[in-house]
Amino acid sequence: MSETLKIGYLCPDEDALALPDTMVTAAAARELINSRGGVHGRPIELFAATDAGDPARAVRLARSWVDAGVLTVTGTSTAWNEGPMQVLEDAGVPFTGAAIDMAAYMSYVSRPLIGGAASELLLLAEVTAERAVNGRVGIVHADMEMAQGAVAMLMEQPLRQAGIADIQTAPATHGYAEAVKTLATHIPDVIVGLCEASDGADVVRSAREHAPSAQVVFTGACLDEARLFRPLGRLAEGLILTAAFWPYTDRSHPQVDEFHRAVSGVDGFVPSAFAQGGFAAIMTMADVFRRLGPGVPTPQEVLEHLDTSNDQPVYMQTYLSPAKASPLFPSLHNLDTLVLQRRGDELVDVGGGWRTPAALSP
Hints:
This protein is α/β, with parallel strands linked by helices and 362 residues long. The protein has two domains: 181 residues, Response regulator (Rossmann fold); 147 residues, Rossmann fold (3-Layer(aba) Sandwich). It has twelve helices and twelve strands. The strands form three sheets. The chain has a seven-stranded mixed beta sheet, with helices on both faces. Strands 2-1-3 form a three-stranded parallel beta sheet, with helices on both faces. The longest helix is centred in the last third of the chain and has 19 residues.
């Protein structure tokens, strides 16, 4: 039995979400699965590439993978927009990556394995409102139109609905440290950093200097040992972050431990939430194939399974369930997110377990 189960994996490499670690961990998951005999004896074949920040390249890759017979395309790509998504729609191939671009939220073939930016930002707004005791919030974000739109829709609007009236925003036009310094003049209770991990370190340093009483919160994009926690050292103590996966510091969880063991031989590897995502995507899809039986499923059968199963586990996370699909973002089948706090070298659940943002509740 030699016919393979083919998966495409796309990630960016030339922008603020440069994530080569995710391809490394996706490959590690493939090796682990195949070392155990594959899925019903069939090996996983992985087509992995970076988009180089080029939507046209993403379209070419999507076409070549569809022609090669992939059953799904996963990953996290900022070039994964209407162009490549249209290629998948034309072929009926499901996208099962992380939702960032609006196309990943709206396409009828999109079934993101994690909630992505929408669910994390909406829950971050809830967490921020809970901690803004004086009703003052500062938000620093990338100087990009897409970021400004996300802040307005997914942060400012729910914060105002929660009764937070004093909301100041600052694009990082002259760097994140300067933007935080500007926000600090308003004496915020909470500073929200919407950025990647290395910029998050600048946010924290500036906040500790100019707004020492403010709670600093981030999305899971900053859950990164090498780029955030290690450079900050003790300054990272007390940071609050949303998370799409069980904390990678918790090796008492068997899947987190398996993840660590699978990537332990990779030179220079340091765990992060994004690295978890690459590994989890392949492990989850292998479980989907396993549940579909010994044959090679069609992409349509994969889609139907994701739409009808109420107990499809996501590796290192919770479950996919059509019952959780939100009217606001109908493609999202998994809306649950954790709230973690950095304490010493650990990430501790301070949100009471998996939470679905109220704005996304069915």
